Amino acid sequence: MLPPTLSDDQSVPFDDRGLAYGDGLFETVLLRAGKPVLWRYHTARLAKGCHRLGIPLPCQQALDATWQGGPTAEFEVLKLILTRGSGGRGYAQPDQVTPHLLSRRTPFQPSVERWQKGVAVRLCDLQLARQPRLAGIKHLNRLENVLARQEWSDATIAEGVLADSEGLVVEATSMNVFWQRAGEVLTPQLDQCGVAGTLRAALLEHGAIALASLSLHQLANVERLWVANSVQGVWQVTKLFAADGSLLQSWPLSQPDPFQRLAHQLLGVT
Amino acid sequence: MLPPTLSDDQSVPFDDRGLAYGDGLFETVLLRAGKPVLWRYHTARLAKGCHRLGIPLPCQQALDATWQGGPTAEFEVLKLILTRGSGGRGYAQPDQVTPHLLSRRTPFQPSVERWQKGVAVRLCDLQLARQPRLAGIKHLNRLENVLARQEWSDATIAEGVLADSEGLVVEATSMNVFWQRAGEVLTPQLDQCGVAGTLRAALLEHGAIALASLSLHQLANVERLWVANSVQGVWQVTKLFAADGSLLQSWPLSQPDPFQRLAHQLLGVT
């Protein structure tokens, strides 16, 4: 494991392959009182991404240094970007790869209102392409998410749900999707596309959720629906709109919400 | 059209969306005696990419400024990177988008030997995902090309040919693919994936080539095969290897090569 180049000014040069090709990975981590939440899952996903892309994984000390020290707020978001580093023209990587590791902490306030009152979501027109070589990892090639997020500007719509080119539900633009069927909470496998979130990973490890397949047509008929990630926590979906703005389904806000309670326990935001 | 922010030090900050999400476009342009070759096609592709991604196109003056002035060599490569600029956390773009335009010129020497003697290419294992929303444009989400280029390190292999998930030939890792059937030169349509090269665009405009579909299985049986782009010119393929290294086909070097001659006239490298 090579020590990564730490960029003091938190910028990357013209020839950085993260900029040139999206050749790298990122993590978005909730810090609670200065300590990273689900850190083990974030570093595990980063390691998986490095293995998949063939990028040397920074040592644990370098990763820990991104959040250690400095003033702390109750909640912050730590964003890490790890790129393959500088390279010449062309897709072939240089003989000696020296990754660039960058990080930034910003104050953050989770939306308690969305935790308590739920959210409205919409379906996206954009269909995610199926690329198993890139599925699950949090790489820097995120134009599909950018294009999907451009589909709406109405602030009352909290998220957009994405299906793949086969019409199977994958994720929301920046969250994972969970639904309930026969009392069980389910989430897509993400072996063809999508980002496998760290909260999802923790919930899987705890046996709280199972993997399943769901077509976009079935989505409106699930017993309950949630979107969630490790920074925002769990939002119950109370309204589902089609891409054309028509209401497809509404669910009554169900309290208590054992799924949200468990997930928020894992995040320490109860 | 907004004036882009020109970065004097040719770096981008942490929050640049090109770095964060590959949210941008690039062009790689041959300069001959300081003048861009096929410049009209490069700016047209950039404009198409900006339209597709919703990024404001820099004014022509700003684009021209990337190659005007300075010392000139016989051949150089100009690389442009245009990103959506800085943005906050999350995929939603900021209310006010100010793109970052970066550029760099580097000396370049085309391989006359490959023009004259042809090249060996191989098939890649990686299959390109089909995403019509991103097909044809030269965006910054190029992890598929990076992974494909990792498949070989043998310097005698000049390029790797990529098919999509349906098994249809799309492109080479950094070049377009052309083949001859019944005397006609053909190239894939690139409406599902792949980068539509500027040399390819010029050849299409001149009526020198036509669009067609070719399965990977048919590739070894074409009359002639070429890989080409606007920087390297046209390389006749004389040997085609499978991903496992076995020889699939060899073609005798055919001279004269009217296709190469026309393409090189368009590039001014005759």
UniProtKB/TrEMBL annotation, chains A, B:
InterPro entries: Aminodeoxychorismate_lyase_IV (IPR017824), Aminotrans_IV (IPR001544), Aminotransferase-like (IPR036038), BCAT-like_C (IPR043132), BCAT-like_N (IPR043131), Class-IV_PLP-Dep_Aminotrnsfr (IPR050571)
Single GO MF descriptor: 4-amino-4-deoxychorismate lyase activity
Signal peptide location: none
Cofactor(s) needed for function: pyridoxal 5'-phosphate
Pathway: Cofactor biosynthesis; tetrahydrofolate biosynthesis; 4-aminobenzoate from chorismate: step 2/2
Keyword Lyase recorded: yes
Catalytic activity annotation: 4-amino-4-deoxychorismate = 4-aminobenzoate + pyruvate + H(+)
Enzyme Commission number: 4.1.3.38
Xref: SUPFAM superfamilies: D-aminoacid aminotransferase-like PLP-dependent enzymes
EC class: lyase
Domain of life of the native organism: Bacteria
Keywords: Folate biosynthesis, Lyase, Pyridoxal phosphate
Family of the protein in this entry: Belongs to the class-IV pyridoxal-phosphate-dependent aminotransferase family.
PANTHER family (alphabetical): AMINO-ACID AMINOTRANSFERASE, AMINODEOXYCHORISMATE LYASE
Quaternary structure, from the entry: Homodimer.
Listed name of the protein: Aminodeoxychorismate lyase
